Amino acid sequence: MATKKTSTDSGQQPENDKTQKLQSFTNDAEGQYMTTNTGLKINDDQNSLKAGDRGASLLEDFILREKITHFDHERIPERVVHARGSAAHGVFKVYDSLSAVTKAQFLLDPSIETPVFVRFSTVAGSRGSTDLARDVRGFAVRFYTQEGNFDLVGNNMPVFFIQDAIKFPDLIHAVKPEPDNEIPQAASAHDTFWDFISLMPESAHMIMWVMSDRALPRSYRMMEGFGVHTFRFVNKEGVASFVKFHWKPILGVHSVAWDEAQIISGKDPDFHRRDLWDAIESGAFPEWELGVQIIPEEDEFKYDFDLLDSTKLIPEELVPVQRIGKMTLNRNPDNFFAETEQVAYHLGNIVPGIDFTNDPLLQGRLFSYTDTQLLRLGGPNFHEIPINRPVVGVHNNQRDGHMRQTINKGKVSYSPNSLGANDPAQAKESEGGFVSYPERIDAKKIRARSKSFFDHFSQARLFFNSQSDPEKNHIVDALSFELGKVKTVAIRERMLGILSLIDKNLAAEVAFALRIDVPQDPALPLNHGMPADADPADYDSVMIEGTLTSSDALSMANTPKDTIETRKIAFLTADGVDGKSLNTVKSALIAEGAIVEIIAPRLGYVITEDDEQIPVDHSYLTAASVLYDAVYVPGGTNSVATVEAEADAIHFLNQAFKHCKAIAADAQAIQVLEATYFVKKLPADFSEENVLKEGLVVSDDASELAAKFVLAIEQHRFWDREKPRKIPA
Ligand code: HDE
């Protein structure tokens, strides 16, 4: 019998402790015979067992029954939120010991490489929905540490919509497709979402983030991540401090335009999933630095917001983010279902040295994650699914249940016991046993919200004030779009009331687009989440100014713009293209880590002026400008004439201009640019200063063009092109 392999060979991508352990569960059919699930070799997988070759199928056909039964049961419920996601394996390393603040071992030793499995997701859409929805992105990281799994289940925005977990089902019911007609999919632009939000002033800050370009990442690899809640670090001496977790992407934080996002949703709804997969396959491993903001216990009440309130962030100006380590994603999963779908994160998975706080959102989440996995993964043994197993041993007296895999030996499944030497034994704290931080609590049992949670607007204002002008315009446009899709005028008005409490100009601009008036004196508490017996006066929002008026870290305009690594550049070509220019610019871009794709009227190859055949990646039929970061038109008399006459190519350029991308052309190809509408916008000269301002490069020297083009692509986008606010294409 042919037996070439026993387990999956996962190519060139690096192994770590966890991926090696996963190997024993992987299966590779290469060189193997087909069998039933009981190992019987199958002779005919094409025909069912019948009474004669035209006869009825026979119930006896156990092979048919097994195959169809398994198929019938292939689906499991999708996650109730974050259903759409993509994941990757990687490693994390701390830069220096953090022993001063935590005893978590994986944060103590720079020589320890901790395996991670990271899943990115959208929140509202179903499993098959577009990656480019305007939405929050999940950023869930599992560290497989030597002390057990630590899950940092975060988002790409540092705050949340609500303050108390009891409102989560309401929030999600409001944003999901409306229950009567299941419309719209993966979108918040509808009545129920804005109805709820307009009655929940506490969501004002998060709404600013979700209406900003942060909700439209260029790539998962170009997003920040946040633990959102305040957690606790505890050191060996038992001294605790508060901590906020951040992930800072090495490639900077970048987004696409809303118009572009909507087009990508049609052209390539798997845009982010493909981007992550391709980057890792090509060896361009995505990287983030882990950052922490540490607040000593005694500073708990130092700020004009409450550290336990998840609708607030701690401005980096008040507590700087210390970068403490780096995470690298270097390996794609072998199987989407087994790994990405079955991974079961839980922010209750912690290790000694890390602990919770009383944030009421965090506390509710501690219940929800295990509960939801029980339904989704079908029983209490989901921790035995390979991707969920820790890299260290699991020993306890939990037994049995659906699909139990572990074969526990012996008679003893209780503690204390004498028949099994009282094992498994409890671990002392000094032996690594987890001991909860002994926080003092002396309180009445009440359902209530602290007054310190009632300032809903100052950080929403801080966020808005911190944005660049183009970013502010995008927020105005996003709100005008979303509220424009809301049919109930009263909801639009109520939302304008909320916006006016954040920023009067913001409210006025959105009101202008909707052609309605901003309510002069928006009533608060706006009938929002009050207990039945409450006095409305007790629920009034607190209006404070906040100590900061602006924070640089909140604007993407301030993100590092120093690399074109992994950026995708389209070359618009046709037969007769100038091969020398093409190759010079291509080599220069590739040397900087970019990806070049050749687009031509037909697939196969294009022929250069010098009769060189250059492979074509896409025809104008399958390519789309929204799938690239920048575009270049090489010269060559025949090529230029063909490209100029190709309507799809001109649309490609017009759209790239509209989406504020870098565009370059050989001087010989200027006639192509002359066929675009933005020919009028070409600057008088292409000095470096103008290139950095306009993002347009024309030159008759390919090397010079390439150097300037790189500078332009590094800028990501030239949002100032939108100054007249409306661009055709
Ligand atoms: Fe989640 N969330 N969440 N969430 N969450 C889930 O757990 C929940 C919240 C986040 O890639 C569910 O396994 C409640 C904040 C991510 O598999 C569920 C509340 C943050 C993921 C759940 C929140 C998150 C989830 C659904 C309010 C950022 C995807 C499937 C108290 C800090 C993880 C699942 C993955 C998933 C409950 C709010 C992040 C239902 C009750 C705040 C990244 O248990």
Walk me through the structure.
The protein is 27% helix and 15% strand. The chain folds into three domains: 88-204 and 215-388, Catalase HpII,  Chain A, domain 1 (Beta Barrel), CATH 2.40.180.10; 451-557, Hemocyanin, N-terminal domain, CATH 1.20.1370.20; 561-722, Class I glutamine amidotransferase (GATase) domain (Rossmann fold). The chain has helices spanning 17-23, 62-72, 168-175, 191-198, 204-210, 258-267, 271-281, 336-341, 360-376, 458-466, 469-484, 489-502, 504-514, 579-591, 637-645, 647-658, 670-674, 688-694, 702-714, and strands at residues 85-94, 114-122, 137-145, 148-155, 225-226, 231-234, 240-249, 287-296, 322-331, 354-355, 568-572, 595-600, 605-607, 613-615, 618-619, 630-633, 662-666, 696-699. It is globular and about 90 Å long. The longest helix has 17 residues, at 360-376. The protein is built from 19 helices and 18 strands. Helix 12 (489-502) packs antiparallel against helix 13. The strands form three sheets. Strands 1, 2, 3, 4, 5, 6, 7, 8, 9 and 10 form a ten-stranded antiparallel beta sheet that branches. CIS-heme D hydroxychlorin gamma-spirolactone 17R, 18S (HDE) binds next to strand 2, strand 3, strand 4 and helix 9.
Structural classification: alpha/beta
Strand content: 5-15%
Mean pLDDT score: 95
The beta-strand count equals: 18
Based on Cα principal axes, name the global outline: globular
CATH level-four homologous superfamily name of the largest domain: Catalase core domain
Level-2 CATH architecture of the largest domain? Beta Barrel
CA-based gyration radius: 29 Å
EC number: 1.11.1.6
Region (Disordered): 1-30, 411-431
Cofactor: heme
Biased composition (Polar residues): 1-14, 21-30
